[in-house]
Amino acid sequence: MKVRILEPIKSPALKRKRVCAYARVSSASEAQGESLENQTTYYRSLIEANPEYEYVGVFADYGTTGTKDERPEFQKMLALARAGEIDLILTKSISRFARNTTLVLEVVRELKELGVEVVFEKDNISSLTGDGELMLTVLSSFAQEESKSASENLKWRYRRKFEQGELAVNATRFLGYDKNKHGELVINPVQAKVVERIFADYISGKGSFVIAKELNTEGVPTIAGGRWHSSTVLGILKNEKYKGDAKLQKTYSKDHLSKKKCINHGEVDSFYIKNNHPPIVSKEIWDEAQRQIALRAKAKGNIGETKNKYQNRYPLTGMLLCGKCGAPLRRRIWNSKYACKKVVWQCSNYIKNGKNACQGTSIDDMTVGRLNIQSQTIVEEVVEHGQKYYRYTSKGKPDKPCRKPAAPEKTRSRVLPGIDRSGRAAIKLRSPG
Distance between CA 248 and CA 426 in Å, rounded? Predict the structure, then answer.
């Protein structure tokens, strides 16, 4: 009699789901930071405790808004999902995932097509169920309205503070001042000397470009620790805070979704406070600096309607970009003892900051003038067999900046009460309409 041994049939190993979690808090406060840490710990323990799950990670964005899709951890998670390395995403709620209805639906639909499930624990929704998208549409709309309401409440609180003459100034980015324990601006003696020097040099006849160059040569850092530029110097000269006053609401957020900052040209109320804090320069010195700025701008034709004419008097102004650093090329005239004048377009970054910033690109005006350039064009220098050639790449139309109203509206003003500071009044500059 023969005995045949029957080997047991091995069942295939159960494939585990590759699972991650997403967490987010919208501010960098200590309480929010603790909340984010708790979410991260909770999801890691939850995933690792389930034998059917393979832990991929917890992606957590700290101090970011859910109305934007620029969150680094969120984007890293999406990249892994697109690469086929995630099967399931766990998150606390729709508002933690994103507050923008359109963004929620776009991302969830894309993940659904990739076979990736998203589970919203608090809302008890799975993106792969039949009624999941309907519920997502309704609840994410509520989340977006909640975000809008929170944004409007924040704006209202700031407006109330401004009406009371309370500043919201980041002194760590404000040359010349610190904040005391009461949150008031106090003069930083070391930094104030730099501010005084800038005003004195400018009034004595030096230009903003020369002042910036001298400060860089002497190794004087900006408040951010970087290099000085003409625009940095002008920004200090035009800042009313250095004479002790303060204008509030210089910028505003265009909408609660993009959070894009725009210069306030009268679209919303602004407030002006006189004698708010100790001045670094006298009002007479500050006013003289403004007079000099206006005179020099007028002398260059860089004012009002003439400004636009001046800036666009050459058809290629703003159209040519350096192939090495991307800065605009500036029209210049080269003079030589041995040759006639030559008109060229040269990298503005090289002109301002030297070859350490950019090796520079330059092209003859006659050469580039023969081209039919209709949009911003990158000019690249190519050397072959000892000869220089040029390559041109169209960049397309640049993005439009926030528009300034076509005609300035007349503003009304009224004096608002101060907050226990003598000689100090907030003037409200009303927005049109």
Answer: 9
Amino acid identity for residue 226 in this structure = G
The stretch 309-338 carries a mean pLDDT of 77
Strand order of the β-sheet with 387-396 is 320-322, 376-384, 387-396
- What pLDDT does residue 266 have? 57
**pLDDT of 50 above 60:** yes
The string of DSSP letters for 172-203 reads GGSTTEEE-TTS-EEE-HHHHHHHHHHHHHHH
Task: Give the pLDDT band (50/70/90) at residue 144.
Answer: low
Tell me which long-range contacts 283-289 makes (C-beta under 8 A, separation of at least 24). 283/243, 283/244, 285/199, 285/200, 285/203, 285/243, 286/199, 286/240, 286/242, 286/243, 288/203, 289/199, 289/202, 289/203, 289/237
Distance CA 399, CA 375 (A): 12
pTM for the full predicted model: 0.44
Neighbours of 368 (CB within 10 A): 19
Kindly report the CA angle at 169 between 168 and 172, in degrees rounded to 5? 145
- Quickly tell me which residue has 């004195």 as its tokens: 200
Per DSSP (E only), the strands in 217-267 are: 246-248, 251-253, 261-263
